[in-house]
Every structure is written in structure tokens, then in C-alpha cells.
TrEMBL record:
Belongs to the DNA gyrase inhibitor YacG family. Zn(2+) binds at residues 20, 23, 35, 39. It comes from Chelativorans petroleitrophicus. This is DNA gyrase inhibitor YacG. Interacts with GyrB. GO terms for biological process: regulation of DNA-templated transcription. Keywords: Metal-binding, Zinc. InterPro entries: DNA_gyrase_inhibitor_YacG, Znf_NHR/GATA. SUPFAM superfamilies: Glucocorticoid receptor-like (DNA-binding domain).
Length: 68
């Protein structure tokens, strides 16, 4: 058995640690890009409540009617 079998090898991170977009703390692998489940849920709530809006072209009423 090799002498270093008891010691875990250093594993290179898959991606660099970045600050959490909600609070600025370092991100955690399990919640990437967030630092915790709390920050992840805050962001999800903002998407679901309509706080975040993606820009797009205005929709005309004619565009909304189903075409036959």
C-alpha cells in the first residue's frame, strides 16, 4: 500500500469561488453561485414574484391572439 494512501490528494476546484450575488460572501459548491440555501431561495422568490424582468419588445394585442 502506498505511503500516501491515508492522505487525501488535493483536488482542484471545478470553478473559481465567486462572491454570492445576494450578500457578497464566498459562494459554496452546493449552492453555486450562492453561499447558502437562504440566498438561493431569496433569489428564487424574486424571480417568482416578478421582481426580475427580462427586457423584450412590446407585445401588440394582435400578436397575442391565436392564429387559425
Amino acid at each position: 500500500m502506498p505511503a500516501n494512501a491515508d492522505k487525501p490528494e488535493k483536488i482542484a476546484p471545478l470553478r473559481p469561488r465567486r462572491p454570492c450575488p445576494e450578500c457578497g460572501n464566498p459562494s459554496e459548491r452546493a449552492y453555486f453561485p450562492f453561499c447558502s440555501e437562504r440566498c438561493k431561495n431569496i433569489d428564487l422568490n424574486r424571480w417568482l414574484s416578478g421582481s426580475y424582468v427580462l427586457p423584450g419588445r412590446p407585445v401588440d394585442e394582435d400578436d397575442e391572439s391565436p392564429s387559425s
